[in-house]
Amino acid sequence: MNDSYLNFVNSPFGARLARSLGLPKPEVLRRYRADRPEFDGIVAIGAGREPHLLDALATLVGGIGVTSVAHASAGLWVPLANRHGLMTGRFEAADSGSSSKLAALLFDASGIEDSSQLEPLHAFFHDTLRSLGKCGRIVVLGRPPQTCVNPRQWTAQRALEGFTRSLGKEARRGITANLVYVEPGAESGMEATLRFFLSPRSAYVSGQVVHIAAQVGDETGGEMDGETGGKTGSKASSTFDWAQPLAGLRAVVTGAARGIGGSIASVLAAEGAHVIGIDIPSARDALDATMRQLDGTALAFDIAAPEAPAQIAAALDEQGVDIVVHNAGITKDKTIAKMTEAAWQSVIDINLSAQERIDDALLAGGILRDGGRIIGVSSISGIAGNLGQTNYATSKAGVIGRVQSMAPHLRARGITINAVAPGFIETQMTAKIPLAIREAGRRMNSMSQGGQPVDVAQTIAWLAHPGSAGVSGQIVRVCGQSLIGA
Ligand SMILES: NC(=O)c1ccc[n+]([C@@H]2O[C@H](COP(=O)([O-])OP(=O)(O)OC[C@H]3O[C@@H](n4cnc5c(N)ncnc54)[C@H](O)[C@@H]3O)[C@@H](O)[C@H]2O)c1
Q: In this protein, which residues make up the domain named Ketoreductase (predicted)?
């Protein structure tokens, strides 16, 4: 759907009017385009005491080929960057607010062990934030509090969450701010995640906290798990084809005929996957058209039909599948007193129970291969609840429970399970929402606008990436840092 307000306030006349009336002016977000460089500009590096992740950051900065500048808090960066052969310089306080805009701010807080050591966060962002350009990126790196050895360290690392989320709310201008906790030993598995958060692909993902766990064999670059025969551990970053990371993989996407599902299918195909799209028989024409464009395979099944899991398993059995995206979903909104049993049951069945049955069939038969990915589509309604959506919010909260409960069981096979929780995304589903509520949904977030289906699709592509093996059991909101459920 078209966001007429965003278009208007970004026209010359609209921008002047918005300025004179003091109206909010949502930024036109910079999204990924294959014909534009994904990474460019200058990245400023800051750090707290004894940063542990600078070496891994140097690999990343070298890999994406950008210039860096070191803030005074990150004195170690310059010699390290020189050793890695990177173009680097020093951030001068005089640059603050100047027209030479930075593209990203990266802060390594991993060595902070006590609340009294948090001040470098203030110093770095105080000096650099005004130099960050429109749609710039902020990433703070820390250690997962649960892995900290004492309460002081746990406290200081947990504090990073409040800091990063507040930055996301302050920065505006299409800037995102996210926190990545890297477990000790998971350093070699952080590149895919950092690339995502630095890229225009994460245009509508802000205020999120992601935890990267160490994999069996992380120190060795991956080794065979004797019990399951599955490959575990993160591959060295240099072994990924960053342009076509999903080449040779097969991905099944439910609800692929239109909306977010159609976009997921095209992004996964653009990254090299063979996509098998599933949708209800009445959407067959749209599904066929989408799959034809992508050279994919169309399967017209109602996922909630009792025979669907066996049919899907049979269709995928011969070649197996690597990525399963449970996107199909419906709403049947009514307050609980007015909700029919059928409206309750169909929403729970399509949005939640069908996924459980399909996963069971694919996992039991070994059709979902070791090292595979399961990605659910939850919703901020599943986090915060929503008036008139007891059925929908129950189903979407259930998706979160499924992710959290299944992740430990799938770990031995190297299979990750995660979910995205979209906020307000411009699709036919949200076009049905009454205008006043729709406008509130669009504006009540740090980006002051709704997201696009491609924002959800790109987040799913990151979770599907072979380099995201350390990301499991997590819920990533694609909501522009919505105030709802924040
Ligand atoms: N649009 C948003 O703002 C938003 C926000 C949060 C979550 N979501 C979730 O994202 C997902 C996609 O939403 P959308 O906005 O693209 O919706 P949509 O209605 O545009 O598309 C949903 C697709 O799922 C298919 N589908 C429905 N029931 C099915 C079944 N039984 N078997 C097979 N396919 C079936 C539909 O035919 C359709 O193609 C849903 O799970 C939705 O709950 C959307």
A: 251-428
